Each structure stands twice: as structure tokens, then as C-alpha cells.
Amino acid sequence: MTPGMQRCAYLVEPERVEIREVPIPAPAEGQVLLRLERALAGGTDRKAFARGHPQIPMPGPFGHRYAGTVAALGSAAPAFEVGQPVMGVHSAPCLACALCRKERWHLCPDVMKEKVLGAFAQYLCVPAPVARQNLFPRPTWLGPDHATLLEPLACVVHGMELLDWRGVERVLVLGLGSCGLLFAQLLPRYTKAARAGAGRRAARLELGRCFGLNPVWDVGSAALAEQLPAAERFDCVIECTGRLEGWREAFDRTAPGGQVLLFGGIPRGTAFAVDSYRLHYEEVRVLGSFHFSPRDVAKAREHLLSGELELDPLISGCVPLAQLPEALRRLQKGDGIQYAIDPWA
Ligand SMILES: [Zn+2]
Q1: Residue ranges of the alpha helices (H) in 163-201?
Q2: pLDDT confidence of residue 137
Q3: Which residue, 16, 223, 234, 246, could crosslink 172 as a Cys pair with Cβ 3.0–4.6 Å?
Q4: Ligand 1 centroid, distance to 322 Cα (angstroms)
Q5: Rounded-to-integer distance, Cα 76 and Cα 73, Å
Q6: Strand 5-13 versus strand 60-61 pairing type
Q7: What is the DSSP letter of 56?
Q8: Is 326 helix (H, G, I), strand (E, B) or coil?
Q9: For residue 33, which of 89, 74, 84 has the smallest C-alpha distance?
Q10: Which residues, chain by chain, have CB under 5 Å from ion ligand 1?
Q11: Distance 157 CA to ligand 1 centre (A)
């Protein structure tokens, strides 16, 4: 590698990732340059690789979940030390707009204005607002693989915080990918309700059981409707499939007075029709859940730093940066939950 240069993955177009040699950036005012140790390739990256993503310009640097150590500080950057291990998330709100003033930070129109892209690389410049609000020291006992999970965990915490847990006796987690399995692990910290799950692929169903979901239905072999009478409904359904059929199933399985959390995003413009009777006469509450606020990140950090979450099973392996395309193709085939990426291997 030429001095001053680094390797960085670019998403050129759907299905095409190139590993390019690019200059190591110099941190500008307020920015923090990281020497990355790990990035995480998960569901968002899989979707972006398959069909592009509204928040990921192409061609452009790719990857948004990261952990590393501080390599250099821009002027007036937060008080980190060079060499210090850190973890963070990829975005930060403006703190000044009307939505931020109402504490709806996650809906800030500028929340993605200066975001981290380029985590599949050896070095990364963390933008000033993110460095200021959402970059944190990382204790040495917390390995970089686990630290990359701060971002998905913050999204899951955001969903958890939206739900009203009063009177909830039965919960269903629909979709047992990485986020569904994080929900499964966090649920006992929020509620004493009975917890069930539904998903695909034996390994994930087994993890769901390990994390306390019972029963767990395999909807890969037969639809839930064939396994569970239509009258069986739940006070709270957490939808993590990111598919329209999943949204329908989640809504249909929500009991009168219950809540359905639509966590898995589906493409813009998708119509989602529901029976108005269920909304009005049965008071089914439909909650969208998007992104996270700095408050959610703080809670996610607490969960991560508790050391009590089982995170190893959520990372299906660690692969060199050069093998990122293969890792994404494996995810497309349902082979693995998410992969850690080592930029130095
Ligand atoms: Zn704002």
C-alpha cells in the first residue's frame, strides 16, 4: 500500500462493489479520523447491494457500522486521545430544527446530512456532528466486533421505547434476523409478558428459542395461518421482516387494543391497506419505528456495556475486506445473519 493511501469499498452500482485505493482523509474541524478495526455487513448493506438504497449514493463509499481507534483529531474535535478505542453510530440530528426542538431527533430532516459512509475501509473520517454526539470511548474488554452492533441495537431500543408496555401479556416477534433476535434479547428488560417468535431457517429459530421466545413457529415451511388459529392474537407484535406480507401478518395478529410495531422498512410508495374496523372499533395501534435518537443510542450503550447480551451468535463470521462482495452474496442467500469485515486481513 502506498503511504498515505488506504483501501476502501465502493458500492458502484447494485451487485457491484469495488475495493479502491484512495487517500487517507485528513480530519477537518470537529472531525475524528479512525483507524478502523471492524465493520459490520448486515441487512441494510444486503438490501443496498441488491437494489441500491436512498441513503447510499452510488458510486460511493459503502458501510455504516464500525469500530476502531482514534488515529487523528481535527481542530476543535471532541476530547478523544489518539489510540483510544471508540465505537459509534453513523448519524446525528441537527438539534436546532422544529422536530429536534420537540425531541423528535430521529425525524430531523438533517439527521443523515453528514453521516458516516465508508465503514468498509481501513480509515474513516467521522463527521463533526456525529463525533460530537454519537462517538464514544470503548472499554478494551468490548471487542470491535460486538461494538459494531451499537447501531442496530440503537434502532431496536428506539422501537422498544415507542411501545407502551402496560397490560401487555403476550408478545410476538415476527422475523428472526439480527434485529428480531436483538428484540428477543431485550424484551425481558422491558416486560414480563410471554414472548413468542416466528421466522425462517432452523439456526435462527433455535437462537430465538435460546433467547427466550416460546413457542417459535417456522414460517419457512408453512404459513403462520396454517399453524396458528386466526383468533390467536397478541397484545404486541414486533414486525421485523421488512416485507409487505410481514406487515399484513403482524397487523392481523394484533389483538384489540394491542400495538403493532412496524420495524422492518418496505419501499416508499408501498400501499398498506388495513380494515378500518380494526383501527377504530378495536383500537389497534399502528406504530412505525425508524432510526434512533441520541437518547436511544445512550440506552443501547448501556445494554452493550452491561456485557449481558449474547452477541456472538448474531455475527456469522469475520471476512477480509476483499471478500465483502462474497459476504453480501451469502447474506442474499440467507447464509448467515451478518458478517464482521476485517479491513486489514
Ligand atoms: Zn433537526
Answers
A1: 178-190
A2: 97
A3: 234
A4: 37
A5: 8
A6: antiparallel
A7: B
A8: helix
A9: 74
A10: 93-94, 97, 100, 108
A11: 20
CA of 88 to the centre of ligand 1 (A): 19
Give the Å distance between the CA of 133 and the centre of ligand 1: 13
Looking from the CA of 61 toward its CB, the CA atoms found within 13 Å total 22
pLDDT digits (tens, 9 = 90+) for 6-53: 999 999 999 999 999 999 999 999 999 999 999 999 999 999 999 999
The continuous run of DSSP H or E covering 134 comes out as helix 128-134
Q: What is the pLDDT of residues 297-318, one digit of tens each?
A: 999 999 999 999 999 999 999 9
Residue 54 has a pLDDT of 86
Exposure letters 278-315 (e unless 16+ CB within 10 A, then b): beeeeebebbebebbbbebbebbbebbeeeebebeebb
Residue pLDDT, tens place only, 217-256: 999 999 999 999 999 999 999 999 999 999 999 999 999 9
Q: Ligand 1 centre and the CA of 100: distance in Å? A: 4
Cβ atoms within 10 Å of 23's Cβ, excluding its own: 11
23 cis-preceded (ω within 30 degrees of 0): no
Residues 179, 263: contact at Cβ < 8 Å? Answer: yes
At 216, list the grid cell: 417459535
Residue with the three cell numbers 416477534: 173
